[in-house]
Amino acid sequence: MDFLYYGLITLLGLCGLWGSSSVLIHLLESWSVRYKWSMLGLSSIVLASLTSLPELMVSLIAVLDNNHEVAMGNLMGSYAANLCLVVGVCACIKPIQLESIVFNFKFPMLLLAIFSIMLAQWLPVYLMCVLMLIFYAGYIGMTIYLGDAKDVVEDEFPQLKRVSAWVLFPLSLGCLFLSTKGVLYGAVSIASMLGVSKYWIGLTIVAIGTSLPELITSILAQYKGMDDVIVAQAVGSNIFMFLFILPIMGLMNQQVFNVVGFYDFFLLMMIVLVLFIFARYFDRKWQINRLEGMGLLFLYAGYLFFH
Predict the structure, then answer these.
(1) Tally of domains in the chain
(2) What is the enclosing helix (H) or strand (E) of 156?
């Protein structure tokens, strides 16, 4: 009976995630046209940050409760889920066509974030946390600078009234929070009943649960023909997690950096390099096809297996 109860909560949470994510991406489309903003820039900063709010909430609460394994496992698992699971699923549905700016600028920033975490093993943690926040501020500035009006969405679709848009925005965010909390509550409860460890829960159940907004918004973006949003959001979410969420966690309690080691950093680097090779050198340039999408899914399964 308990499994049925928690399963129903998880299902309702998934439905809420789909609805709230659909509203969010439509709002971003509307604002991109109305205010002549770059949709690629919006997905790299705004959408990536909004869909990473579940990771932010879960990680900060876990740190406050001294559950460092769950907090760090959530970030590491969400990183792999964003790049392998989200991009892989979308590529299996339909090949993803990309622009080179996504890899020429955003991937080096992601590598910088990984190296920053490695340096925190030797340098003072508080110093590295401050530097990582500075790096994230620089990333936002460069994204805004590079996000010219040349890739502004020009398609015509029904526009929401300004008042309606600003009312729907907080409501959809609230629904996103509650839905994510429902998914996590149901999934973690089921996993706990099965006797799974905390780090494994953070790496798998919690990470996949908090990555559901990225997956759902990416599928909706692909349906609307906005392929760049998929990878830009995935990479942007990881940059947000490693250069914003993680340093805040470190400032709260520096013990979070002791949970991971060089083996974890090696796996993170391998995921980035494999995705870059798939997009840059195989098949057509700057495209991730269905076969490569399946490869990313197998890579994600291998990542979980080796942990």
Answers:
(1) 1
(2) none
Distance CA 203, CA 226 (A): 29
Task: Please indicate whether residue 206 or residue 39 has the higher confidence score (pLDDT).
Answer: 206
Nearest to 112, CA basis, from 94, 93, 138 = 138
Q: How far apart are CA 164 and CA 169, in angstroms?
A: 9
* Domain annotation covers residue 256: yes
Q: Which two tokens stand for residue 95?
A: 């090949």
Under 8 Å between Cβ of 66 and 222: no
Q: Which domain holds residue 208?
A: 38-148+197-306
pTM for this prediction: 0.78
CA atoms within 13 A on the CB side of 246: 33
Handedness of CA 72, 73, 74, 78 (dihedral sign): positive
Whether 155 has a pLDDT exceeding 60, the answer reads: no
| 68 burial type by CB count under 10 A (0-12 exposed, 13-18 middle, 19+ buried) | buried
pLDDT band at 260 (very low <50, low <70, confident <90, very high): confident
Q: Does 161 have pLDDT greater than 70?
A: no
How much helix, strand and coil, in percent to the nearest 5, is found in the chain?
85, 0, 15
User: Which contiguous run of DSSP H or E holds residue 210?
Assistant: helix 207-223
Over the stretch 233-251, which tens digit does the pLDDT of each residue have?
888 888 888 899 989 988 8
